[in-house]
């Protein structure tokens, strides 16, 4: 059984096996979680991201997928980069958002990671409504078949923390 825990704070301050980054498809950094991960992870993370762009992901990492790099200077062994969908009112992209969590947990299982920290993927710059993002995150992790022992959702502010708390018993 995977334990789901909630923490309010900065995901780059967590001590876990793997930190999930809400990346963009370029893998070369951006704002929000992505900016913070690269700032605190340092040049080793960016160097591996560049290598991925030069090899397997020449066109970038597709939405809903997840890929692993070193965690550099972060207090973790790995960063799992996943690309959330941009929220749309005309198209249901929930499947892609669920895929981010599912694929990230698959990478975690391949690595043997036991503790994994997730941000609220897509709920920042990509505009996903927080309550719905929380529902998809918690439901998907609950239903996942994974050996990860703790999934820690790290929520930046009180509003996000409350939205996730409403999804838990
Ligand atoms: P996306 O582009 O997938 O929307 P963002 O990084 O813009 O990703 O935001 C995802 C969520 O993470 C938002 O709820 C945002 O408030 C939150 N966030 C931003 N920075 C951090 C951080 N350092 N630690 C944890 N959560 C963060």
TrEMBL record:
Stored Gene3D superfamilies: Leucine Aminopeptidase, subunit E, domain 1
Organism for this UniProt entry: Streptomyces sp. R39
Enzyme class: hydrolase
GO molecular-function terms, A-Z: O-acetyl-ADP-ribose deacetylase activity
Keyword vocabulary terms for this entry: Hydrolase
PANTHER family noted in UniProt: GANGLIOSIDE INDUCED DIFFERENTIATION ASSOCIATED PROTEIN 2-RELATED, MACRO DOMAIN-CONTAINING PROTEIN
Matching NCBIfam families: PRK00431.1-6
Domain Macro: 1-169
Superkingdom to which the source organism belongs: Bacteria
Protein name: O-acetyl-ADP-ribose deacetylase
EC number(s) from the headed UniProt entry: 3.1.1.106
């Amino acid at each position: 059984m995977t334990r789901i825990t909630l923490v309010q704070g900065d995901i780059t301050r967590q001590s876990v096996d793997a930190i999930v980054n809400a990346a963009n498809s370029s893998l070369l950094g951006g704002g929000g979680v992505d900016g913070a991960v690269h700032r605190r992870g340092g040049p080793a993370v960016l160097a591996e991201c560049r290598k991925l762009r030069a090899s397997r992901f020449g066109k970038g990492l597709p939405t809903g997928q997840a890929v692993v790099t070193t965690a550099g200077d972060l207090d973790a062994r790995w960063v799992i980069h996943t690309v959330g969908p941009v929220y749309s009112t005309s198209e249901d992209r929930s499947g892609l958002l669920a895929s981010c969590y599912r694929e990230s947990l698959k990478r975690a299982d391949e690595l043997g990671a036991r503790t994994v920290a997730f941000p609220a993927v897509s709920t920042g710059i990509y505009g996903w409504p927080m309550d719905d993002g929380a529902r998809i995150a918690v439901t998907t992790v609950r239903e996942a078949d994974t050996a990860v022992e703790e999934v820690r959702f790290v929520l930046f502010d009180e509003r996000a923390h409350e939205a996730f708390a409403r999804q838990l018993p």
